[in-house]
Amino acid sequence: MAVQFFDFGKLSDGRSVTAAKLTNHAGASLTVLDYGATVQALCIPDRSGKPVDVVLGYDSAVEYEKNGDYLGATIGRVGNRIGKSVFSLNGKTYELAKNDGENHLHGGKEGFDKKFWRMAAQGESLLCWRVSPDGEENYPGNLNVKVLFSLTDDNRFCITYDADTDADTLVNLTNHSYFNLNGRGDVLNHRLQLFAERFAENDGGCLPTGRLLPVEGTPFDFRTEKEIGTDIGADDEQLKRAGGYDHNYVLCGKKAAILYGPETGIEMTVETDLPGMQLYSGNFLTERKGKGGSIINRRDAACFETQLYPNAMNCYGFPSPVLRAGAHLHSETSYAFRVR
Fold first, then answer.
1. Annotated catalytic residue 305
2. Tens of pLDDT along 214-224?
3. CA angle (258 as vertex; 253, 261 as ends), nearest 5
4. Residue 240: its H or E element
5. What pTM value is reported for the model?
6. Is the peptide bond before 211 cis (omega within 30 degrees of 0)?
7. Catalytic residue among 104, 176, 190, 247, which?
8. Residue 58: exposed, middle, or buried by beta-carbon count in 10 A (0-12, 13-18, 19+)?
9. Three-state SS for 183?
10. pLDDT-based confidence at 68, cuts 50/70/90?
11. How confident is the model at residue 2 (pLDDT cuts 50, 70, 90)?
12. Do residues 229 and 191 lie in contact, with contact meaning Cβ atoms separated by under 8 Å?
């Protein structure tokens, strides 16, 4: 399986965007852009053998530049939200960009999703890397980040994260792909199972309060497989605050989720070594043109963002996102596909 590189067009300022495509022996393929280390396409054979693109995205570089919602992007330095856009580390206070109301979201106004990454084939995988300089988005330390994308012959899409810093800093890397295993329409008929018994309570700004609530007896209980749309409209304050699901789940182990698209028969199993995963049901997606002339609408996909818990610096007992100088971060997440 060779990695193929090709031109993906230009941004509004004329900078060229390059794409890399990995194709396995099972007929699946993965396309990644150097702009944002972005998963632009992920095509998986359905029950009839026809490839289905199971992630949302765009056909041009400019659309990725101008449209929001982080479709397919690598997120950093810190994925998800930091309350009031401020944190303290080693006795010093760092003020961050307020790009989500009063909160800091997904690394700031120009996070990793808006940066160019270097790309190179590494065997049959694709390596993306960049150095986030000291002071970028006001985070301390020079952070060396590597993201390895792989697609195995048994249709397992793997993402490996590595990072090192020369000064204590915060790091919480994730990928923001939007999945629709039917390849079209909303995801309310997708069947979902989550391996979690608790989730993080959110305030009105989708920011974790620090309380971890049991899923039992709530619309957040996916321990037994059910359709995403079964309880999404329930009379529940947490659902109302987010317009649906946009919550961090506390994972019970390595296996995080199983998602099934009934129209194609494609099933996806998410596994990770991270303690949390954000389930986001596309509540804030607005109508826009997607790939191949398709139209993207609200709830046309779901995100499974493996992560440390959001707002961890302000919530006692949450796993720390602090990466110390000289320490090494390594994390792995995979999305395994099969037909059932």
1. yes
2. 999 999 999 99
3. 170
4. helix 237-242
5. 0.97
6. no
7. 176
8. buried
9. coil
10. confident
11. confident
12. no
**Alpha-carbon gap, residue 210 to 24, rounded angstroms:** 43
Count of other CB atoms within 10 angstroms of residue 214: 12
Neighbours of 102 (CB within 10 A): 11
Q: Which residues contact 217 (CB under 8 A, 6 or more apart)?
A: none
pLDDT digits (tens, 9 = 90+) for 94-105: 999 999 999 999
176 catalytic residue (yes or no) = yes
Residues 6 or more apart whose Cβ sits within 8 Å of residue 186? 229, 297, 298, 299, 300
Name which of 41, 20, 8, 37 is nearest 122 in CA terms. Answer: 20
Neighbours of 121 (CB within 10 A): 15
Burial degree of 189 (CB within 10 A; 0-12, 13-18, 19+): middle
Token pair 């994308």 is at which residue?
149
Instruction: With H, G, I as helix, E, B as strand and everything else as coil, classify residue 138.
Output: helix
H or E element in which residue 89 lies: strand 86-89
Among the options 136, 137, 271, 305, which is catalytic? Answer: 305
